[in-house]
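Thread amino acids onto this structure.
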C-alpha cells in the first residue's frame, strides 16, 4: 500500500479502480488530494488540460483549472457525493469525494466531456468569451474531436458510477474519527479552563477573542480559528458553571458569529445560511458540553473551508448549467424562476449573477437564443412566420417580429427574402 504524506487513503487501490473506470467508460480521470493537488491521472481519450493549455497559449489568460476541480469536490460533498460542473472552457466534468474518518481526504474527477456537437460548441460564445480570435477556431476543432461526446443523461449515469467508486475507496471510521477528535478537543478546552481558574478576574465573555476568531475565519486560517474557538468554549463552560441551557444559548450566538465571518471572508451567502438553518435545528440534540464543542468545531471546519477564492468559478458553473438548460428548453414557456430552481439558486441571486457574467438580463439572452434559432429555420425551410414563432418559444407573432427586428435590424420576412444577408448600416440607420 503506497502512502504519500497527507494522503489518508490507499493510493494504489484508488489508482487501480480509477484506471478501470476510465477504461470501461472512455473518459479521462484525475485523482486529487483534499486541498486540490493533483495526485494521479490516467485513461480516457484525451488530455483535457491540453485544451486549456492551448487556450492559455493563445490568449495569455490563466484558467485556474485546479480551483475549478476543488470547487467541484466541495460541491460534490455538499450535494451528497456527486456533482456535475463545467470548466471555464465549457467542458463538463463530474466529481465525487473520498471520505476518510468523516472528512474529505481527496476526490476523483471524470472529464472532460462534450455535451454538444463540435460545431455548436464553436458557434457558442465560449471561445469569444475567453478572448480566442476566430482565426484560431480550427485549432480547437481538432482538439474537440478527441473528447467523448454524450447526452446529459449518460453523463449523469457516469457520475453515479464514479460515486460508487469513491465509496469503495472511502472508509467507515467516522465514529472513531469523531471520538479521537472529541478527546483531543476536550483536553484542549480543559487545559484552558485550568488556566482560567488561576486568574483573579475572568470577564463574562472574551469579546477580543471573538474578534480574533472572526479575523481568522475571514482569512481561511483553520488552525488559528480552531484554537480560538476552543478558548472561547472553555471560557463559556467555565463562566456558566456547566449549565447546559445557558451553554446552548451561547453556542447559538457563536454559530451566528461563525457564519457571518465566513460570509465576510467571501463564502457564498446562500450556502452559509442554508447550512445555518440545518445547524440551528441540530443544536438542541446536543446533550453535553463535549457534544456541543465537537459539533461546533466541525461547523467551524466547514465554514472556513468555504472561505476560498472560488466565487468566480462558482458563477461560471452556474452560468454554464443555466445556458445548457435554456438551450434545451427555449421552445417552451421558460422563466427565470424555473431556471433558477433548476440550478438551486434563488431567482434574485441568479438574476444578479447572470447579468454580472453575461452583461445582459435573462430575458435578453433568452430572446437572442430564440432569434438565433429562428434565423436558422427561416433559411432552412418553408415554415411560416407563425409556425417559426411557435417553434422557438414566442407566444405572440407581433412580439416575435419586434424582437427579431430589434436584434437583426430587419423583419423575419425580409431576413428570409435576403437569405440572411444584412447590412446593419442600412437597416438600423
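Threaded sequence (429 positions):
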Amino acid at each position: 500500500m503506497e502512502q504519500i504524506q497527507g494522503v489518508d487513503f490507499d493510493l494504489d487501490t484508488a489508482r487501480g479502480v480509477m484506471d478501470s473506470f476510465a477504461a470501461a467508460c472512455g473518459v479521462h480521470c484525475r485523482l486529487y488530494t483534499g486541498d486540490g493537488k493533483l495526485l494521479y491521472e490516467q485513461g480516457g481519450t484525451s488530455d483535457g488540460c491540453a485544451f486549456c493549455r492551448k487556450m492559455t497559449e493563445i490568449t495569455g489568460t490563466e484558467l485556474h483549472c485546479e480551483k475549478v476541480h476543488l470547487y467541484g469536490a466541495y460541491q460534490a460533498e455538499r450535494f451528497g457525493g456527486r456533482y456535475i460542473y463545467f470548466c471555464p472552457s465549457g467542458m463538463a466534468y463530474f466529481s465525487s469525494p473520498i471520505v476518510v474518518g468523516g472528512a474529505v481526504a481527496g476526490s476523483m474527477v471524470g472529464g472532460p466531456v462534450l455535451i454538444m456537437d463540435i460545431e455548436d460548441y464553436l458557434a457558442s460564445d465560449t471561445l469569444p468569451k475567453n478572448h480566442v480570435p476566430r482565426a484560431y477556431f480550427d485549432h480547437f476543432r481538432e482538439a474537440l474531436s478527441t473528447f467523448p461526446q454524450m447526452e446529459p443523461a449518460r453523463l449523469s449515469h457516469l457520475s453515479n458510477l464514479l460515486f460508487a467508486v469513491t465509496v469503495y475507496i472511502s472508509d467507515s471510521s467516522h465514529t472513531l474519527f469523531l471520538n479521537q477528535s472529541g478527546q483531543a478537543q476536550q483536553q484542549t478546552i480543559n487545559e484552558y479552563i485550568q488556566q482560567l481558574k488561576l486568574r483573579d478576574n475572568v470577564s463574562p465573555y472574551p469579546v477580543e477573542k471573538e474578534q480574533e476568531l472572526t479575523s481568522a475565519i475571514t482569512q481561511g486560517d483553520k488552525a488559528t480559528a480552531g484554537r480560538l474557538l476552543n478558548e472561547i468554549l472553555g471560557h463559556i463552560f467555565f463562566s456558566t458553571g456547566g449549565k447546559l441551557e445557558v451553554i446552548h444559548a451561547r453556542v447559538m450566538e457563536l454559530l451566528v458569529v461563525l457564519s457571518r465571518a465566513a460570509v465576510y471572508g467571501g463564502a457564498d451567502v446562500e450556502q452559509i445560511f442554508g447550512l445555518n438553518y440545518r445547524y440551528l435545528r441540530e443544536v438542541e440534540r446536543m446533550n453535553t458540553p463535549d457534544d456541543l464543542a465537537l459539533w461546533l468545531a466541525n461547523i467551524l471546519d466547514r465554514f472556513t473551508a468555504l472561505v476560498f477564492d472560488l466565487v468566480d468559478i462558482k458563477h461560471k458553473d452556474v452560468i454554464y448549467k443555466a445556458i445548457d438548460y435554456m438551450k434545451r428548453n427555449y421552445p417552451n414557456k421558460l422563466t427565470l424562476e424555473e431556471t433558477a430552481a433548476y440550478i438551486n439558486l434563488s431567482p434574485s441571486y441568479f438574476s444578479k449573477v447572470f447579468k454580472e457574467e453575461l452583461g445582459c438580463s435573462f430575458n435578453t439572452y433568452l430572446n437572442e437564443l430564440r432569434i438565433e434559432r429562428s434565423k436558422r429555420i427561416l433559411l432552412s425551410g418553408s415554415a411560416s412566420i407563425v409556425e417559426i414563432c411557435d417553434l422557438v418559444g414566442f407566444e405572440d407573432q407581433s412580439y416575435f417580429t419586434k424582437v427579431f427586428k430589434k436584434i437583426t435590424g430587419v423583419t423575419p420576412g425580409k431576413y428570409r427574402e435576403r437569405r440572411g444577408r444584412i447590412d446593419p448600416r442600412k437597416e438600423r440607420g
